[in-house]
């Protein structure tokens, strides 16, 4: 009887340890891709929470880019780590030329894709952009060329990155294709130009 009781206690303790270890395992995500983080000498970790304004953060990103470097952020929640390469359109050389259809501008309460939408449409529009592959002219040419352009206050940035990243993860889980999340930070939302008058 005593031997049986010891065996039950061992099994319960082992089960408890395994369950608590499993609960402590963190998921880790890399954007745009994990392999992009292998070139660490050209990347610099930036703690965006130390900046007094979003504008100053973008100025810092532009200076880094001017010197041939890229910035990345690390964000940790209770059970997830996010590693995000971020960029901006200015830096060394002329600004990056992006087609407007390849840009999805996102702020805390709205998104801009040809017209303004409530933030609740983020998954629907981001999914159409990422899965379009040039089929429809109003959406992105491909996931490789697609850019999510974030504009917000510095104290809203973590919330916005996590929102976009989690929506992207949901879309990726539902997709059979390998998708890419390119995040740019900009001081203003991209405005879609009006069509020329004929």
Fold blueprint:
Blueprint: H1 2-24, E1 27-31, E2 43-45, H2 54-66, E3 70-76, E4 80-87, E5 103-106, E6 110-113, E7 115-118, H3 122-132, E8 147-150, H4 157-174, E9 183-185
Parallel strand pairs: 1-4, 2-3, 4-9, 5-8, 8-9
Antiparallel strand pairs: 3-4, 5-6, 6-7
Helix pairs in contact: 3-4
Structural class by secondary-structure content = alpha/beta
N- to C-terminal separation?
Answer: 93 Å
Question: Total number of β-strand segments?
Answer: 9
DSSP helical segment count:
4
Q: What do the pLDDT scores average to?
A: 83
Quick one: biggest sheet?
9 strands, mixed
- DSSP helix fraction: 25-40%
Provide the gyration radius in Å: 21 Å
Percent strand equals 15-25%
What is the succession of H and E elements? HEEHEEEEEHEHE
Gross morphology is globular
Number of domains: 1
Uncertain segments? none
Question: How is this structure best described in words?
Answer:
The protein is of the alpha/beta class and 198 residues long. Helices cover 33% and strands 21% of the residues. It contains 4 helices and 9 strands, in the order αββαβββββαβαβ. It has helices at 2-24, 54-66, 122-132, 157-174, and strands at 27-31, 43-45, 70-76, 80-87, 103-106, 110-113, 115-118, 147-150, 183-185. Helix 4 (157-174) links the parallel strand 8 and strand 9. The longest helix has 23 residues, at 2-24. The chain is globular, with a radius of gyration of 21 Å. It starts with a helix and ends in a 13-residue tail after the last strand. The model has no long low-confidence stretch (mean pLDDT 83).
